[in-house]
Specification:
Number of helices: 9
Number of strands: 13
Oligomer: single chain
Number of domains: 2
Radius of gyration: 23 Å
Order of helices and strands: EEHEEHEHHEEEHEHHEEHHEE
Strand content: 35-45%
């Protein structure tokens, strides 16, 4: 729907427009990627404070609201995630924005074979009674979160969102304000995820036992790139001394499937290899000569 038109300085014309988001198109695009990659496994950890009171990690209002709203995604068990984080020496609070704790959370997510880690922080605040409302309180929520690829540690989607809700009960108002903030982020986040998934998923691949010189001579990077469904291959780190090569591979399948396709072409590589670890977002290969 086209609204008012306004002429601005410099020949610029502003036009008001309204439209509805085509959620069916979004769901269809996600389902197409699911056919190629399989439904991705998500883990999340949200640091939440409701009207000044800290929520128990793994049982937050925000996490429940996200699971309910983002039905396109498959969320794994949060309690197990918390136990693994503790085992890794991490904490289930204060993760968002703390690089050390984020790293430990990514390790825990990888151990659970998750492909995407969602970390965030949510806060609500009681602004006070609304004048003339006879007992209605204005509750405002602020939500910051990001989706991180477990394989590459790259952010694939993020948003800052707010919500407000008037209620006679500040606690109930906080829950509704959080839900509104989550609802506002839904379309933006799914759009970002779709845009990223059109390129494929990211897989971290490590070769152990091969020098960078041999890696180049055997043209390993190009052999992997030639595998159907692989969109990009880039060398992230290399060491002749330690004989470790780290790659970042973008492909329309998981790390497990990439390894299977590499085994099918093992005669092209010029060396024998076995997998030390094969996960959806991580592949660790030992070279044997």
């Amino acid at each position: 729907q086209i609204g008012d038109t306004r002429k601005k300085d410099g020949g610029i014309v502003e036009i008001d427009a309204k439209g509805k988001v085509n959620m069916k198109a979004i769901h269809d695009a996600l389902n197409e990627r699911y056919k190629d990659l399989g439904k991705p496994r998500f883990l999340m950890i949200i640091d939440e404070s409701l009207n000044g009171s800290k929520s128990k990690p793994g049982q937050t209002v925000t996490e429940n609201a996200i699971v309910a709203k983002f039905k396109e995604f498959d969320f794994l068990d949060r309690e197990q995630f918390m136990r693994i984080i503790a085992k890794e020496g991490g904490q289930p609070i204060g993760v968002y924005g703390n690089s050390n704790l984020e790293s430990k959370a990514l390790q825990a997510a990888a151990e659970m074979d998750a492909e995407i880690l969602l970390i965030g922080v949510a806060n609500t605040k009681n602004i006070g009674e609304i004048p003339g409302s006879e007992g209605l309180y204005s509750i405002q929520a602020a939500l910051r979160f990001k989706f991180v690829s477990v394989g590459s540690a790259q952010i694939i989607a993020s948003d800052n969102s707010t919500g407000a809700y008037p209620h006679v009960s500040p606690d109930s108002g906080a829950i509704e304000a959080i839900r509104k903030a989550v609802d506002k982020s839904h379309v933006k986040i799914t759009d970002q995820v779709i845009a990223k998934w059109r390129q494929g998923g990211t897989i971290r691949v490590v070769f152990e036992g091969i020098s960078y010189d041999d890696f180049i001579d055997q043209d390993v990077e190009q052999i992997i790139r030639n595998i159907r469904g692989v969109n990009n291959v880039s060398v992230k780190n290399s060491s002749n001394t330690n004989k470790l090569i780290e790659l970042e591979v973008t492909a329309l399948f998981s790390g497990n499937m990439l390894y299977r396709k590499m085994r099918e072409r093992r005669g092209d590589f010029g060396f024998n290899f076995t997998q030390k670890e094969a996960r959806p977002g991580n592949l660790y290969i030992t070279v044997k000569k």
